[in-house]
Amino acid sequence: MFEDLVKLKNKCGKVEASFLATLGRHLYYRCRQKNIMAGQRVFIRGLENIDIQGKALLTVGLAYTGFTGPFDPTWLNIQGKLVFADNFSIAKGCRFDIGQGAVVRFGAGYVNANTTFAVMHELTVGTGCAISWGCEFLDEDFHHLDYPGKKERANRIEIGDSVWIGANSTILRGSVIPDGCVVAAGSRVSSAFSIKNALIAGNPARVVKENVRWK
What we know:
The chain is mainly β. The chain has helices at about 1-15, 20-30, and strands at about 35-40, 40-45, 50, 60, 75-80, 80-85, 90, 95-100, 105, 110, 115-120, 120-125, 130, 135-140, 155-160, 165, 170, 175, 180-185, 190, 200, 205-210.
């Protein structure tokens, strides 16, 4: 218990957050039956729609990133269902907009600063995934575009285990990213891939290398 408090105090120091205020917020969330550790300027609408399973801990706004400031807000607007099967970290400046009836599931992992999730249908992210800063996830076009030969894509996004998504990538509806893949920074993904441990890059994204490993 003492070691956990020391770790929390050190983490708060890095992001210039008050240790006592952070601990107080944690106790508040625990009273609401949610195992959440949140930094300052974390706004959660729809707390009752967050499902943190077992002994998993959701950490929000406490991950250190050099280019974020202590007053950068983090917003979670959860009208659907947001499920965490294991420990997960959401960094400062992230935006979650989970629409009514939508379901989002995460395994163990983290998302770095200033990443946006606009999910109106379904998003699944496996365990051991690393999502970098400035990424966007959208499973809905929000406007209808029609033209001859148009190929319809599923209104969902599926990401396997141990996937690394590089900074400023955009993941659109219909995307399937298999286990062990790496999405290069700045890529735009909208296809269902089937090759595991591949490097996916470009706009539109394609497989550029196979049998890659990352850690």
